[in-house]
Amino acid sequence: PVAGNRWKRGEEEWLPLYEGKMVQAFDHRAASVIVNPENLNRPAQPREATLAEREDPRWSPDPQFWVAADEVDWPRGFEWALAFKDVTAPTNVRTMIAALIPRSGVGNTLPLLLADEAGSTAAGADALWLLAANFNSLVFDFVARQKVQGQHLNWFIVEQLPVIPAEDYARRFGDQTALEVVRDHLLRLAYTSHDMEPLARDLSCERPPLSWDQEGRRHLRARLDALYFLLYGLSREDAEYVLGTFPIVQRQDEVLFGSYRTSDLVLAYMNALTAGDVDTTVAL
After folding, report:
1. Which residue blocks in the chain are alpha helix, DSSP H?
2. For the whole model, what pTM was predicted?
């Protein structure tokens, strides 16, 4: 075994094989794969990462398989990619779930968006991490679930979904552009382990991995959701309607907090961003 949950045998290097069950939104370390040989139909099942594991920047989830590095077709000079879960449904908690993952093998349940070698520059990287934030926004998910009819988020659907164009990220909220806000929040959500240091370097971040803060992440995602509601041109009333179409999110919040906290946070952050405030942490 070597760093990043990779293996070596002589001169051969073996990379973990990521599957859809191993990731969640902004989290490439959501679950390890545990094999139960007594389960003949679905022996490989996810085992959710513990809080202690997520707080350890050295920890990586265990896959079911490792694959030879020379069998992994990855753009030269590019050490991470945008992945999304193929298996889904419009009745799930979320329909689109995307994560940035390190260079690795990938199964067919986790399609990748990659920069080509000619585009593996800062501009090429920007397109992918901006898409990661866009894909995981509630407003994007609202549109995606109108289009998914079965249990797969097929490429032909993803290719037709509306994303925010690059020039719209120049919009200012107080003294920061939308691009600066998304970059800061994306790093704080995705750069929580050493294996994502290539992402940090491509975003000109020289800090060590950022700590996993469960409550802090809830606020970061709520501010991003608020930002994307505004970038898509939705009013506060529109956003309130969209948030009301996520009943499972609402039920989970009511069990944990006694109220629809996600909605309350997003709407509050919309007010803050509209006023030009990108720093205040909303207290409910």
Report:
1. 51-55, 122-135, 138-147, 155-158, 178-190, 197-202, 214-231, 236-243, 247-257, 261-274
2. 0.93
